Amino acid sequence: MPLINLKLHANVSELTLYLKCPRQVYYAYRNHTLVPEITAEYLEHMMLKELSLGYPDAIERTTGEKQNIHDELNIEMERVKAELELIYSTELRDLPFKVLETAESVVSEQIDSIAMNLSETIRKHGREEIIQRIRPCRTEPVLHSDKLKMTGIPSAIVHYKEKMVPLSIRTGKCPDSGVWGNDRIHIAAIAMLLEDNYEDSVEHGFVQYARHGNIRKVKIRPEDRRQVLKIRKRVDTIKEGILPERKEGPICKYCNFTKFCTTTKSSLASKLF
User: Fold this and answer.
1) How many angstroms separate the CA atoms of 106 and 16, rounded?
2) Is 267 buried (19+), middle (13-18) or exposed (0-12) by CB count in 10 A?
3) What is the rounded distance in angstroms from the CA atom of residue 233 to the CA atom of residue 246?
4) Tens of pLDDT along 92-143?
5) Domain membership flag for residue 272
6) Nearest C-alpha neighbor of 133 from the set 154, 150, 157
7) Average pLDDT over the chain, rounded to whole?
8) Are 168 and 72 in a shared domain?
9) Angle between the 66-87 and 40-52 helix axes, to the nearest 10 degrees?
10) pLDDT tens string 142-179
11) Stated pTM of the model
């Protein structure tokens, strides 16, 4: 089997990066590494992701009652504490104990609301349905498609109603209904990769907002696919050397590329982003 040059493929993470800020795609591709500082807040996201991977097991062991789920989530939290530094050994090397302790405390405080939302979801849809929606059959697989000129690593793939379906685990805020626009594009891109890899249609996916214990089903629309292809083409153009026009926004305050992002000169091509 010939080797595939993944450098030529747009990565799904680059599509979501583009939606945050097109310039970040430019700098990241040119090896200005976007390395997050390991703060207590960043550690919370790691812990919530690992905790959410244990939701199916916790639900399977419960009767569906909130207190019962709460107890099982506490068991899963102990697993996360024991395994986190083994899973992220490089990232968490020499991590101050205080940072770890703070993150553990914050995540533990979320368990009550997570249990409440999972309990309500089980009551509404049934335990077996929810387990099927979020139990991974593969975790973080590398998917690629020459046809799409795209590669991506989903949080997980679930086997739902005889189909391979994408599951995206998000650790930020949860919208009141539906999913965030960026999450919709992400799910659509992964679904398109799955279709090409498994030669089967993918009509929907799931977004799990781990911090809240909410699981949202996403119907993938033609417009979502259209947007994926349009953004992928724009990402390709940026990687070829077009620096997007600089736009100031709230994200700039926390951007690791600030020291590089000084050029304000624009061209007709840069304004297209």
Assistant:
1) 27
2) exposed
3) 19
4) 888 899 999 999 999 999 999 999 999 999 999 999 999 999 999 999 999 9
5) no
6) 157
7) 90
8) no
9) 120
10) 999 999 999 999 999 999 999 999 999 999 999 999 99
11) 0.88
Same domain, 215 and 179: yes
Q: What are the tokens at 141?
A: 């697989």
As given in the structure block, the two tokens for residue 42 are 């960043």
Which helix (DSSP H) or strand (DSSP E) does residue 208 occupy?
strand 204-209
Across 55-74, b (16+ Cβ under 10 Å) vs e yields bbebbeebeeebebbbebbe
Extract the tokens encoding 64.
């569906």
Is 12 in the same domain as 87? Answer: no
pLDDT band at 83 (very low <50, low <70, confident <90, very high): very high
Range of the domain at 173: 3-32+136-240
DSSP-derived letter for residue 254 is G
Q: Which structure tokens are listed for 235?
A: 């990402």
Structure tokens at 227: 């947007």
Q: Does residue 54 sit within a domain? A: yes
